[in-house]
Amino acid sequence: MTKTDILSLSFNELEAEILAMGEKKFRAKQLFEWLHKKKVTEFSQCTNLSAQFVAALDEKFCLNNLKIKKRLVSSIDNTVKYLYELPDGERVETVLMSYSHGNSLCISTQVGCRMGCAFCASTKAGFVRNLTPAEMLLQIYETERDSGRPVESLVLMGIGEPLDNYDNVLKFLYLLSSPEGRNMSLRHVSLSTCGLVDRINELAEFKLGLTLSLSLHAPTDEKRSAIMPINKKYCVAEVIEACRNYFEKTGRRISFEFSLIADVNDNRETAMELIKLLKPLSPCHVNLIPVNEIREGGFRKSPNVKSFQKFLTEGGLNATVRRTLGSDISAACGQLRRDNI
Ligand code: SAH
User: How far is the C-alpha of 309 from the C-alpha of 88, rounded, in Å?
Assistant: First the structure.
């Protein structure tokens, strides 16, 4: 019999399992706290549970860990990049960053990615599988254990397309914000997507406090389709409409990510098209990312970041340039890989 992965169970699911084992209801609360607040790595560490109950838990459930295969510490800033090995031997990367408002963790949601964005390293070696809710939580728990730094905010911007792993990501968010467990406010979480329109619309219905970051990178279908294959499925107008709907339903302003690539999307004409596209969505935010060069090549950082930002600001858009962290350890946007050994 395969054991149930206990960290992927919601509080209600765990409670039902514990009751079915003939234990009292309050044991579920104790156990959930051990798992998600105290972050035990073995059932035997739950000191207020009887030896008999611990043995029964070991029999029925598995409590997984991630192995640190590599830890790189930036010498420029406080960024740490982890290469984690998952229980089945697959690997993902996770990045811990330090900001004035606290520590932020960038987690992966899939092993590889099938979205095929031309400038992104994470998609180059293809897609292997989705991460489970437990594997997403464990990136937080293991990083906190190893670094001794508490994770105060979270970005789903590592390897993978979160909305392509929709059910597991939703369950992960549910677990993360469970009052019986970690109780993290989803206002401290950003989810970045290349624009899976149907899923954005579904997510909007939950009215979560989550910030939606939309990877736009080009304001017209011609330009966007040339660098992001997903645009052939959902065109710019559809993506923008889904963002408008998300904002309307949740009240959370949308953050648009725009990686500036030399001679691709960094001229004045593109800035004007972007203003025309996004003005009706105000208040929104444009996050300019000087593109990070990857070893496959093909794209160069734009030298026009400041002037592009100025065009947008003068056109009435709120635009900032994202600080690049961990560039000396390839920990910046779009540089994470599952095959980094
Ligand atoms: N799949 C999700 C999350 C991935 S990465 C998404 O597409 O949004 C987070 C951000 O980094 C995305 O906006 C992505 O487009 C951007 N990115 C990818 N490669 C990059 C690169 N080489 N330089 C700068 N940003 C990049």
Answer: 44
Regarding whether 276 and 225 lie in a shared domain, the answer is yes
Whether the CB of 157 sits within 6 Å of ligand 1: yes
Indicate the number of domains in the chain. Answer: 2
C-beta 155 within 6 A of ligand 1: no
Instruction: Read off the pTM.
Output: 0.96
pLDDT in tens, 58-116: 999 999 999 999 999 999 988 999 999 999 999 999 999 998 889 999 999 999 999 99
Residue 84, burial from CB neighbour count under 10 angstroms (0-12, 13-18, 19+): buried
Domain boundary (15, 33, 62) is at 62
171 and 312 share one domain: yes
Domain that holds residue 25: 4-62
Measured in Å, residue 257 CA sits from the centre of ligand 1 at 8
CA distances (Å), 252 to each of 17, 225, 341, in order?
A: 36, 27, 39
**Spatial CA neighbour of 259 closest among 315, 314, 310, 332:** 332
| Atom 13 in ligand 1: residue holding the nearest Cα | 215
Q: How many CB atoms lie within 10 A of CB 229?
A: 16
User: Is-contact 141 149, C-beta < 8 A?
Assistant: no
State whether 119 and 14 are in the same domain: no
CA–CA separation, 65 and 134 (whole Å): 9
Pairing of strands 153-156, 189-193: parallel
